[in-house]
Write a structure and sequence with these properties.
Organism: Brachypodium distachyon (Purple false brome)
Helix content: 10-25%
Protein name: F-box/LRR-repeat protein 15/At3g58940/PEG3-like LRR domain-containing protein
Strand order of the largest sheet: 1-2-3-5-7-9-10-11-12-13-14
Structural class: alpha/beta
Pfam family, one: LRR_At5g56370
Number of helices: 7
Shape: elongated
Number of strands: 14
Order of helices and strands: EEHEEEEEEEHHEHEHEHEHE
Length: about 290
């Protein structure tokens, strides 16, 4: 294989360094012989290949004060993130077979699900952005409930292609989904209006304190640019035209909808009527594009 990218030893061995940003134009593998950065607070790697488990172990053990970890467009293969200090974690547009995250003090999370992901509990999580890309959802099984449980402390969630995750959960109904008791605002990005029904119903049932709900067909396409071709038809095995709610939700402060004027218009009219009836929002905004 290609030789690892040649970095001076001092890059990953410094008693004073507090921030590293390594951004490569083309993807290169790095294999530091050792990692000793006792004061490092922030690490950002872009277009880096971290293929050896020993590299992940060195990063986990050699960064005792790390607070912000940002991996973008990296090749991670089988990767473990284990840190008691990381508060801001971002793993976006990366490729990997599996990833295990054990970071109980994370407050802010950005994650592209592209392979098997195991998230340990994040009791201090406040804000999360999760994009289920490609066939990543199929590799979450059978731990979808644990994955959602790790997100359940969040106050603010942005989720893309969440309907696909719920469909897989229905095929593996291990236990009832977790309660999102702290959730205040929810942003859902889906390809089509028909794919909103199940996620909306799920959170209206599982998030009793939800105040703001935003549904957006535009941003789902933007966030998945280059990863998926926008669909012209829902991938649902059966149509879903109902909001199956345990009871009416009347605490919604804001309902905002960004919907395409194209083939979704008729479906949107049905959903808008159902949402107004079921949630009785104090304020509602519709944006067409």
């Amino acid at each position: 294989g290609a030789s690892p990218f040649d970095l001076p030893d001092c890059v990953f061995n410094s008693l004073t360094l507090e921030e590293i940003v390594l951004s490569l134009r083309i993807q290169e593998q790095i294999v530091p012989e050792s990692v000793c950065l006792p004061r490092l607070k922030k690490l950002r790697l872009v277009n880096v290949r971290l293929l050896l488990s020993s590299v992940a172990e060195s990063l986990n053990s050699g960064l005792p004060e790390l607070e912000e970890l940002d991996l973008d467009r990296c090749c991670l293969h089988r990767f473990r993130i284990s840190s008691q200090t990381v508060k801001t974690l971002s793993v976006t547009a990366c490729t990997y077979v599996e990833m295990h995250v054990s970071a109980p003090n994370v407050v802010s999370l950005r994650l592209t699900v592209a392979g098997r992901v195991k998230l340990d509990a994040m009791p201090f999580l406040s804000r999360a952005w999760v994009n289920i890309s490609g066939d990543g959802v199929n590799r979450l099984a059978p731990d979808e409930h644990g994955f959602l449980g790790a997100l359940s402390s969040a106050q603010h969630l942005e989720l893309f292609r969440f309907d696909s995750l719920l469909q897989v959960m229905k095929q593996n109904p291990a236990t009832e989904g977790p309660i999102f008791g702290k959730l205040k605002s929810l942003y859902l990005g889906e390809w089509l209006v028909a794919d909103f029904y199940q996620p909306v119903a799920y959170f209206l049932n599982q998030a009793p304190n939800l105040a703001s709900l935003i549904l957006d067909t535009l941003k789902a396409c933007e966030e998945n640019a280059g990863l998926l071709v926008p669909r012209q038809a829902s991938l649902r095995k059966e149509p879903n035209y109902k909001l199956k709610l345990a009871s009416a939700s009347t605490g919604l402060e804001m309902l905002r909808l960004r919907i395409s004027k194209g083939h979704d218009a008729a479906e949107f009219s049905k959903m808008r009527g159902l949402l107004k009836e079921k949630t009785k929002p104090k304020e509602m905004e519709v944006i067409w594009f």
